[in-house]
């Protein structure tokens, strides 16, 4: 794979732009940033396991430095060349400097990463050389791929149903039916695209695919989720069926191209808030060794600020770091054709160099206003690990938000908690208490009940408390509050009544999540009852605890059928298709949204109320929906809204979560009419009615 570095030709000074390693007809240009290094060494390797470089090129300040950019052009090199850096400089932690001239450093702009047979995180923490145990960057050509006319899809949020999945966990299980050599890879995901299409998914949100450190986990376990980045440009090598680092790039692009052909967008969960280098005891792998004081937030003693909960925090609003983040986003959009990003702990990106929140964070405005990112989806996890919570007031106009309040309020309501009816009505209608005063699109809210972080949907109705002992942290990790209810028995139960109630509750959650105003996000396997046996923080469980067991598809066929039909009903309703985009206030007016209680037009928000109903028109005016939710322990009778005289049909029941499958959901064309002026809704259930109207009927 590598070109022997001993065969390179002349060394030319090179240039301060572009950063990274760029091949051309004569060789490769290298450029890296370091403001306080006294010398930079470019290391060229023949093999990833080499204990020393085949060639060391020392960059001099006089010939190879422009301001803080160190650069050189090496003739005769080509794509596939393994390389890294060493940086000589002061070790003065009080001033923020942690240079270690013995450590092999990845290029922050490296496009691919080669992992040695004996990769050791510990070797990057200990004193001395670590060449044989260190990852190396690989020279890659950004344009060496045939996209066959592919482009990002730019689907509007109003048409979007997101499916959060883990690339490895989606097909790693033997039951996936994927060929063994492709299980847990980008290629394996391609084989499952027909399944995603049939389910009705329009976008996959991939847990981190940046190359990360799997050893950043408790001893004996591995980092499975991937929130431990080593590179912001290179796809994770272990997610490819090939072992060639350049082949990893192409396999990722093959996956994107195949998903686009199926009409499915690719959203990346990106981690720009911290790195795998951790705290003072962590490894020196890249940024720390090149310019620690620039890249990380430090206190007056040189210690790392830890707003991420992972040991360090990137200094995201420093100009050099801002450029790194934006250049990374450009790369994934322009070169890798992804459609959008979900920003992990995005509230951190609003902090200044002292860690204080900014009213107008430069990095977030850079991203919002960037012309190359104008068509991409931007989703913020609008909080951080230090208590900064910005749901409902995250900056800008384009950003959408993971609506954590939706998750919590819906869980409490469905569990049967008192005093949740008002909040539930708000969440169903797109969270106007959070967003109606803002001139943003009506899809500002990304609605979700579950995510990778926390209980699965099955576990949400099966456990009252977390069971994280397998994480080897004494069950101290993971959220202590999940707003879950086990329906009477902790964990698995063979009791028929318990199983029936749990499935009914799962259907309630799915209906609320998919049909509420906003953009719904589902989680891998929830549609077939995937369980993690009560583990609500399975970040270090790269095993069947986290993998999707595809045999559940047959066992939970009714739940899968319900989810598929529900997504189809969402499309049929067409309540969110609007061009040009409407604000939430404008949308609610167009839909003529009304909130009801047991009586039409009279909401019941008393503390003991556990019920709410809403009615909505479609934007075209040809469909009316009535939706009654009863989270209480007894059946209730709801008065139905009177239909206009020109209605083309009576009320028809399309969903009743209290009914056994397949009567729990039906298409409108096959739905039975509802007679009378009132309707009984069973305990802990949801009923949805549709009525057909002439277009623009009153």
Task: Summarize the topology.
Layout: E1 11-12, E2 20-23, E3 27-33, E4 39-45, E5 55-59, H1 61-64, E6 65-66, E7 69-75, E8 82-88, E9 91-92, E10 97-98, E11 112-114, E12 136-138, E13 162-165, H2 167-171, H3 186-191, H4 193-199, E14 203-206, H5 245-261, E15 265-270, H6 287-295, H7 319-334, E16 340-343, H8 362-369, E17 377-380, E18 400-402, H9 404-415, H10 421-428, H11 432-435, E19 445-447, H12 457-460, H13 496-515, E20 519-523, H14 552-555, H15 557-573, H16 584-591, E21 594-596, E22 611-617, E23 623-630, E24 636-639, E25 652-656, E26 672-673, E27 678-681, E28 685-692
Parallel strand pairs: 13-14, 13-20, 14-15, 15-16, 16-17, 17-18, 18-19, 19-20
Antiparallel strand pairs: 1-7, 2-3, 3-7, 4-5, 4-8, 6-7, 8-12, 9-10, 11-12, 21-22, 22-23, 23-28, 24-27, 25-26, 25-28
Helix pairs in contact: 9-10, 9-13, 13-15
In short:
The protein is an alpha/beta fold and 698 residues long. It contains 16 helices and 28 strands. The strands form 6 sheets. Strands 13-14-15-16-17-18-19-20 form an 8-stranded parallel barrel.
Mean pLDDT: 95
Percent range for β-strand residues: 15-25%
Largest sheet: 8 strands, parallel, barrel
Q: Which term fits the overall shape?
A: elongated
Q: How are the strands ordered across the major sheet?
A: 13-14-15-16-17-18-19-20
Rg estimate, integer Å: 27 Å
Helix content: 10-25%
Assign the CATH architecture of the domain at 5-138. Sandwich
Runs in which pLDDT lies below 50 for 5 or more consecutive residues are 1-6
CATH topology description of the domain at 5-138 = Immunoglobulin-like
Q: State the CATH superfamily name of the domain at 5-138.
A: Immunoglobulins
Instruction: Quickly name the level 1 CATH class of the domain at 5-138.
Output: Mainly Beta
Please tally the β strands and state the result: 28
**Number of helical elements:** 16
């Amino acid at each position: 794979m590598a070109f022997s570095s001993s065969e390179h030709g002349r060394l030319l000074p090179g240039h301060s732009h572009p950063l990274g390693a760029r091949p051309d007809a004569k060789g490769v240009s290298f450029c890296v940033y370091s403001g306080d290094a006294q010398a930079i060494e470019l290391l060229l390797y023949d093999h990833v396991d080499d204990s020393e470089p085949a060639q060391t090129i020392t960059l001099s300040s006089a010939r190879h430095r422009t301001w803080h950019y160190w650069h050189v052009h090496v003739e005769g090199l080509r794509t596939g060349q393994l390389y890294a850096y060493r940086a000589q400089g002061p070790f003065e932690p009080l001033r923020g400097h942690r240079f270690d001239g013995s450590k092999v450093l990845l290029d922050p702009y490296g496009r691919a990463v080669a992992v040695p047979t004996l990769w050791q995180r510990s070797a990057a923490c200990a004193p001395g050389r670590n060449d044989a145990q260190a990852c190396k960057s690989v020279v890659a050509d950004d344009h060496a791929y045939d996209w066959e006319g592919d482009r990002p899809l730019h689907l509007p949020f109003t048409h979007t149903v997101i499916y959060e999945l883990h690339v490895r966990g989606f097909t790693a299980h033997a039951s996936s039916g994927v060929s063994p050599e492709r299980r847990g890879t980008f290629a394996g995901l391609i084989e499952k695209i027909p399944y995603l299409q049939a389910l009705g998914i329009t976008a996959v949100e991939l847990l981190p695919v940046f190359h990360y450190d799997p050893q950043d986990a408790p001893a004996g376990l591995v980092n499975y989720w991937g929130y431990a980045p080593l590179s912001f440009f290179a796809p994770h090598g272990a997610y490819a069926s090939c072992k060639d680092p350049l082949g990893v790039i192409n396999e990722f692009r093959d996956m994107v191209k195949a998903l686009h052909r199926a009409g499915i967008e690719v959203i990346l969960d990106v981690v720009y808030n911290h790195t795998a280098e951790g705290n003072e005891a962590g490894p020196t792998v890249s940024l720390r060794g090149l310019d620690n004081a620039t890249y990380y937030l430090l206190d007056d003693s040189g210690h790392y600020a830890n707003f991420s909960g992972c040991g360090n925090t990137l200094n995201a609003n420093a100009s050099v770091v801002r450029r790194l983040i934006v250049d990374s986003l450009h790369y994934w959009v322009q070169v890798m054709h992804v459609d959008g990003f979900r920003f992990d702990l995005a509230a951190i990106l609003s902090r200044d160099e002292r860690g204080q929140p900014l009213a107008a964070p430069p990095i977030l405005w850079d991203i919002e206003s960037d012309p190359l990112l104008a068509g991409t989806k931007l989703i913020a996890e609008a909080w951080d690990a230090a208590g900064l919570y910005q749901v409902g007031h995250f900056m800008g106009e384009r950003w959408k938000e993971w609506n954590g309040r939706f998750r919590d309020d819906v869980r409490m309501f469905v569990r049967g908690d008192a005093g949740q009816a008002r909040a539930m009505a708000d969440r169903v209608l797109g969270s106007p208490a959070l967003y109606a005063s803002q001139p943003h699109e009506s899809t500002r809210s990304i609605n979700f009940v579950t995510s990778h972080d926390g209980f699965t949907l099955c576990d949400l109705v099966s456990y009252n408390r977390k069971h994280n002992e397998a994480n080897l942290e004494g069950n101290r990790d993971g959220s202590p509050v999940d707003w879950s209810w086990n329906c009477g028995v902790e964990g698995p139960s063979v009791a028929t009544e318990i199983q029936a109630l749990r499935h009914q509750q799962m259907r309630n959650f799915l209906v609320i999540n998919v049909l509420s105003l906003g953009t719904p996000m589902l989680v891998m396997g929830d549609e077939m009852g995937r369980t993690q046996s009560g583990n609500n923080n399975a970040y270090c469980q790269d095993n069947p605890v986290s993998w999707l067991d595809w045999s559940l598809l047959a066992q939970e066929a009714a739940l899968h059928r319900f989810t598929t039909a529900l997504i189809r009903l969402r499309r049929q309703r067409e309540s969110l298709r609007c061009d040009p985009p409407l604000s939430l206030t404008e949308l609610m007016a167009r839909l003529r949204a009304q909130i009801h209680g047991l009586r039409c037009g009279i909401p019941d928000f008393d503390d003991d109320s556990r019920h709410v109903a809403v009615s909505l028109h479609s934007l075209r005016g040809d469909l009316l929906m009535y939706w009654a939710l009863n989270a209480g322990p007894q059946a209730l009778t709801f008065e139905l809204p009177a239909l206009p005289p020109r209605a083309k049909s009576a009320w028809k029941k399309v969903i009743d979560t209290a009914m056994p499958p397949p009567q729990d959901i039906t298409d409108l064309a096959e739905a039975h009419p509802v007679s009378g002026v009132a309707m009984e809704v069973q305990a802990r259930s949801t009923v949805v009615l549709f009525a057909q109207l002439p277009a623009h009927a009153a």
